[in-house]
Structures are given as structure tokens and as C-alpha cells.
Amino acid sequence: RGVPPGAPPRAPGEGPAGNLTPEVIQEIEEQASDKDGTLKIMESPPFQAPPGYTALWWDEFDGDALDLRWWNYQYGYGAAEGLWQWGNREEQFYTDSTSNVRVSDGTLKITAIREQTVLPDGYTFNYTSGRINTRGKAGFYGGMRTADGRQWEQVRIEARIKAPQPSTGTWAAYWMLPIDLRYGVWASSGEIDIFEMKNKFIKNNMALHYGGPWPKYSERFNTYERRPGGGSFSDSFTVVTMDWSPTEINMYMDGELAFSDKSKSVDRNGWYSKSLNGGPNTPFDMPFYIILNLAIGGKYPGDSDAATLSPNTMEIDYIRVFGK
Q: What is the pLDDT of residues 73-109, one digit of tens each?
């Protein structure tokens, strides 16, 4: 299958992404998809679902390696995606090294490290880090159907996350993108930011992006919210929850409502898409996949400097998806 785009050369089978056997690949193709109506409900959840909900999908990160049935590594600096430095002047090179992405002691750890990666043309990236997603393997939205034919009018996506330690030029994110661009290029087809923050890690930027193509027609609704009880999101884990129905998206931190937005179909100031292919609740009426990454530098947090902490780790205890 060769080296993933943007990845440094390596021996066949070297590294976690090289451990996908034909049997595992077949299992992925048969059992997991992000297309609507194809996700199979997982069995025997090791936790109690909230009243009225059914557990649909989860990762407790209890093993000793990333579960490649559900997750993909992203590599490099955005070349494969057509986004030089991910479109934000970011300074990290993403890898699948266990130094950057590791599952141990019941949590997922994504770590940014000050170490150089030199491209063939001599361009140098001064940090490595990790970025993973569920694209092609698990997608969710309010109103989704599962493989058994059931429809879930409200979907709850819950994660327990601890931010990296405060540091200059450091950007942590747990977010979602659409499985395809059926309504057009960004931001026509949407983006959801659930846990996005930088540097001091004292405010969470929760946001929906929608409207039309950037830069002229894209729009955003967002809130910057402090952690319930105060302090830094680096101090301890925070439970971040999103309740998603066809016409409304609400987000909570440790049970407190922190964000609420509605479709333009029920609120004249709500989300919408300029796409001619959409419906009343476009673009948030199709499956979105989950992304977790830790970036260094860029337009949002600013450049790194000599004081930028290395190594620095974002830690995820679990991600759980429920429906009702």
C-alpha cells in the first residue's frame, strides 16, 4: 500500500499504521463506515448510557494501541489534503509514532515534541505531533440512521479531555468535519469545533462554521467559555458533551450549557448553507467524522518560541456516542 502521503519513508510494516493485516482491513470495510445507515451499533458498552439513550459507538482507550478499526492517522504537513501547513502556517509534522500518539493506562495521549523533520527539498519542520480521525469508519449527526435501520433524532457525543499544559504557540482541538463536500467547499459543508483552545487553555472556543465558500461567504457562530469552576483546562479532565438534533446543537462542559445554536429553519439567525443542493437544516444534516489533534504555531495560537513546552500532551479518557 506504500507510504501515506506526507509521511517520511519507512520499512514495510514499521509503525502502528503498518500493522493492518488483510483480515483487519476486511473487518473495517464490513463493520465500519461513516456513511449514513451503515454504522453498526457496538455491543456491551462498559458504562451506563444516560436515561433514554442507547450507546451507539465508543472508544474507552483501554488497550495498548490505537484501535485502527475506527481511527486513521494523518501524516505530514497537509500536502495530501492540499493544505500547506494545514492552511494555518502550523509548525508541526504529524506522524504515527508512539512518541506522538499513544494509548496507555486507559487514555489516549497526543504529544507535541520539539524535533526536526526535513523534507527532500530541505524545508524543515521543528515539531512532530499527532492527528487522528474517524473518516471512512464512523460518522454521526442528529437524525442519523444505523445499519439496523433505526433512526436517532438526537445524537449525544461525549468526551472527557484534558488540555496540554499552558505554553506559547500551542493549539489543541477535538472537532468534526463532514464526510464529503456535498454542499460545497469550506465552509459550505460545515465544521463543528467542540474543544478548541490555545496557549493558556482557559477558554474553550466552541463553534459552528457554515454558509458559503471561504473567505467571502463563510460564517461562524461561536462562544469563548471558561471552564466551569474556573482554572485552566490543563488542570484536570473536563467532560465535553454535544447534543445534536436536526434543528439544534447544544454543547456542555461538565454538565453546564456553554453553547447553543439552531437551524435557520427554526431561527432566522441560525445556521444555513448557500448550497442549492441542501435542505432546511443543511449543512448539519449529514454525517461528520471526529478529529483529534495537537498543533504547534499557526494563525490561531501564534508562533512557537524558545519557551514553548516540549513534550506537551493532550489526553483523552474516552469518546462515547449515544442516540435516542
A: 999 998 888 888 988 899 999 999 999 999 999 999 9
Q: Is the pLDDT of residue 14 over 60?
A: no
> Cell 435501520 sits at which residue?
149
Separation CA 17–CA 319 (nearest Å): 21
Radius of gyration of the chain (CA): 19
**DSSP label of 246:** T
The continuous run of DSSP H or E covering 316 comes out as: strand 312-323
pTM exceeds 0.85 for this model: yes
226 SS3 class: strand
Catalytically annotated residues: 191, 196
The number of CA neighbours under 13 Å toward the Cβ of 121 is 1
Per-residue pLDDT tens digits for 234-285:
999 999 999 999 999 999 999 999 999 999 999 999 999 999 889 999 999 9
| CB-based burial, 32-46: b 16+ in 10 Å, e otherwise | bbbebeebebbeebe
Mean of all residue pLDDT scores within the chain:
90
49-53: long-range pairs with CB below 8 Å, 24+: 49/322, 50/156, 50/322, 52/324, 53/156, 53/322, 53/323, 53/324
User: For 1-5, 102-106, 195-199, which range has the lowest pLDDT when averaged over its residues?
Assistant: 1-5
CB 129 within 8 A of CB 195: no
Contacts of residues 253-259 at CB distance under 8 Å and 24 or more positions apart, as own/partner, are 253/204, 253/225, 253/227, 253/228, 254/227, 254/228, 254/229, 255/228, 256/228, 258/204, 258/206, 258/223, 258/225, 259/206, 259/222, 259/223, 259/225
